[in-house]
């Protein structure tokens, strides 16, 4: 398990934009599974439907990217501290509304890499149901 302190030593993101609380599974160079607890105190709920607090889909895609960032950077610790940037987002589908009180289980699998470009498949589930899934690429 990778706790929030270690995540913060790997990723440059900070509140309110750090969107992964813990990594619960990690296979070096292969896959990682993270957790994000969505609380009513999230800054985005102030303006994103205050009467019906719905997590923006783009932030769920960002959460997948942050878990992928931990996977890449922890798998390649020789990089030292580097930033990981989106290179492409492909075929992302939003299948379930995420609201305050939900817990995201964020699964990311490294499909392939070419030099400093990494290709991933990601999926977020809430209570065992798929909320978001898709493929994306990142670069260091």
Defining key terms:
6 strands, globular, Thiol Ester Dehydrase, Chain A, alpha+beta, 140 residues
CATH superfamily: Hotdog Thioesterase
Percent of residues in beta strands: 35-45%
SSE ordering: HEEHEEEE
Total helices: the number is 2
- The share of residues in helices is 10-25%
User: For the CA atoms, what is the radius of gyration?
Assistant: 14 Å
Structural class: alpha+beta
| General form | globular
CATH class descriptor name: Alpha Beta
Q: Which residues form runs of ≥5 with pLDDT under 50?
A: none
Determine the mean pLDDT: 94
Q: How many structurally independent domains?
A: 1
- Read across the widest sheet, the strand sequence of neighbours is 1-2-4-5-6-3
Largest sheet: 6 strands, antiparallel
- The total strand number stands at 6
How does CATH name the architecture? Roll
What CATH calls the topology is Thiol Ester Dehydrase, Chain A
Structural summary, described in words:
This protein has a single domain (4-139), classed as Roll (Thiol Ester Dehydrase, Chain A), CATH 3.10.129.10. It has 140 residues and is α+β, with helices and mostly antiparallel strands. It is built from two helices and six strands. The protein has helices at residues 4-10, 57-75; strands at 22-27, 31-37, 85-94, 103-114, 117-126, 129-139. Strands 1-2-4-5-6-3 form a six-stranded antiparallel β-sheet, with helices on one face.
């Amino acid at each position: 398990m990778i706790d929030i302190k270690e995540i913060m030593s790997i990723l440059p993101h900070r509140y309110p934009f750090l969107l992964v609380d813990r990594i619960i599974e990690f296979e070096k160079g292969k896959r990682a599974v993270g957790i994000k607890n969505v609380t009513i105190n999230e800054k985005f709920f102030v303006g994103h439907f205050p009467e019906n607090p719905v997590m923006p889909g783009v932030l769920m895609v960002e959460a997948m990217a942050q878990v992928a960032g931990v996977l890449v950077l922890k798998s390649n610790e020789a990089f030292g501290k580097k930033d990981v940037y989106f290179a492409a987002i492909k075929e992302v589908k939003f299948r379930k509304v995420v609201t305050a009180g939900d817990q995201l289980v964020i699964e990311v699998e490294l499909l392939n890499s070419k030099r400093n470009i990494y290709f991933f498949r990601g999926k977020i589930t809430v209570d065992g149901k798929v909320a978001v899934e898709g493929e994306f690429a990142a670069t260091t």
